[in-house]
Amino acid sequence: MRITLGVTGGVAAYKAAELVRRLQQDGFSVQVVMTRGAREFVTPLTFAALSGQKVITDLFGDSSGGEANLESAIEHIAVAQRTDLLVVAPATADIIAKLARGIADDFLTTLYLASTAPVVVAPAMNVNMWNHEATQENVKMLRARGVKIVDPDEGYLACGMTGAGRLAGQEAILAAVREALHAQRDLEGETILVTAGPTCEDLDPVRYLTNRSSGKMGYAVAEAAAQRGAKVFLVSGPTNLETPAGVERIDVRTADEMRRAVVQRFEQCSIAILAAAVADYRPAERRAEKIKKGNGPLTISLEPTADILAEVARNKGQKLVAGFAAETGHVAENARKKLSAKNADLIVANDVTAEGAGFDQDTNVVTLFSRDGRDLALPKLNKSEVAQRILDEVLRLRSVLHGTSAAKRSAV
Ligand code: PMT
What we know:
By secondary structure, the chain is an alpha/beta fold. The protein has 2 domains: about 1-180, Flavin prenyltransferase-like (Rossmann fold), CATH 3.40.50.1950; about 190-285 and about 300-410, CoaB-like (Rossmann fold, 3-Layer(aba) Sandwich). The protein has 14 helices and 21 strands. Helix 1 (about 15-25) packs parallel to helix 3, helix 4 (about 70-80) packs across helix 6 (about 105-115) and helix 5 packs across helix 8.
């Protein structure tokens, strides 16, 4: 995938150098375009050395006052056509205004008009410039046109003021890049089964055994899969969450109901991702009447539930099956054990005691353990971003295991 990175004139221009490196680490080829303002802060040589490609600085090639070069101009438009994603970081108030109004007076602004690729813009400027009605109106126009704006962070600014205007962090920009690229619907033709939330195992008509799963992780996976074009079945334990757009939700309460709903739909699916926190045990007996309070201790006998992940993975054939592992210690060891014991292709392991990870959080910290031996440790990310990375790994793994090109398959 080819990313064109537009760097414009602000103090944060130096941060774009690190962004080039991070994008390359993620496997992107990066073509840097610098505006005149950007060259006041960083030299093109820095970006050429990092990207391994000539940096584009002018519409007509040589900027040293030589003759305009038509060949160069045409070649540059070819760059626009080869671009899979245009990222502008840092973006000044000036470039945002030009992009919003369609002014094309240098290479970057011309490229914006000439390219049909998705666009990500990460603004960085003085807090008053950012808050100014003119800038906000321009940002609104770009958003309405489908441009992904990575909101600036708040903090101390180079101008000495404090407020919103700092270039967003690298992770936020990278997340927006991935999100913009995923909007390309690479899961079209797939049918994906996702489980989410807790199960509730009744003891009597008023009491039950459950856990702290909110469903956020599984719902994020279902939402991401639907956004990327898949048909999605979401088998959900009780949650307070809204059904993501384009997802068919099947509500269940107990592990047994979840098992039945999963097994029934698994046949139609090419991929299953089981994120639900299913009870491992349920009361051996469900009392028809409320258990009365006594004087002594109460012993409740529990029996194991069926292991849904192990059952579907046993019969998976060429389907790809991913499970989760909620761990409180020895994460890698336990996750690898689950991978092989349950015959899964991928285990998404989270240490549910870690800060910002696990149950009822908006973020998660996971490591993806794949059947081909790859361990991919991710930093703390929003669950929606974790979901995207899981889907990326599922597609990569399937093509390694079964030689299937990313997506474009119906149920196998
Ligand atoms: O819902 P959130 O609040 O967003 O929290 C997210 C989460 C912590 C629930 C999620 O990230 C997570 O870890 N889900 C798996 C929870 C769990 O039950 O882990 P486990 O290690 O006990 O189970 C391993 C795997 O087997 C899981 O894929 C589970 O769905 C599956 N399983 C477990 C028991 C069972 N009877 N049948 C199963 O299929």
